[in-house]
Amino acid sequence: MERGVPIRAISRAISVLSAINRSGSATMMEISKSAEIPYPTASRIVQTLLHEGLIERESARKRYRATALVHTLSMGFQAEDRLVVAARPHIEALCNEIKWPISLATRVGTRMMVRDSTHKLTSLTFSNYYPGFTLPIAECATGKAYLAFCSGEEREAIITGWRATDNETSKQGLLIVHDDSVLNQIRADGYALQMRNLYNAEPGKTSSIAVPIHGNDGELIGSLAIIYFASALKAGPAVEQFFGPLQKTALAIQRQIETAV
Known about the structure:
Helices cover 46% and strands 17% of the residues. It is of the alpha+beta class. The strands form two sheets. The chain has a six-stranded antiparallel sheet, with helices on both faces. A two-stranded antiparallel ribbon has the order 1-2. The relative contact order is 0.12.
């Protein structure tokens, strides 16, 4: 295998397991669509994961879910909780102020992972998002904000990941970085927007605005987003209402991290 060329079967198996894990429970058709893999291929991968004990079929239903065995895949990973601990009181305060849910996300490969959220603290949400839920970087506000404000070296790593895969979200990512116009606009504005979120539990029903979160020495460590009903606000009013409080909260989290060192 040439250096940098992935093993396609492994990449697809990871995509299938991630799709099942994100949904909690999914049919074969849902798995195929979410993982962006042809149905016959997804079916073979599901059979392999069943054989390995990483997933199981729900009794009396043609749906599949992850088993406790997936926990063993992360036994060597030591999570960094400093950001979550620092951010929690601030995102709760912001949620209580504006009533809409707040999500804190960090980058994992070519996706953004929800590290904490306040969806359970408000009725203005369709779904509760748990830590570990992921979205494609190029298809969410937190990802676009992160992509715009991360270092050139980190951005190149993300681009390399996109080039190594062949799916619609990777193509969208490469389109965004094709020239500097989109990212330059996000940097100038200080925020990123995602209208009609598609890669979540309620596709098309919510929109988001996100800002970057920096840590010590200006290091980018994550993104902070407000998620609101797409039918309730258009982009202009959403920015006018949310950008100031969101930016203020991100700066408060940064100061919390700096004083904790």
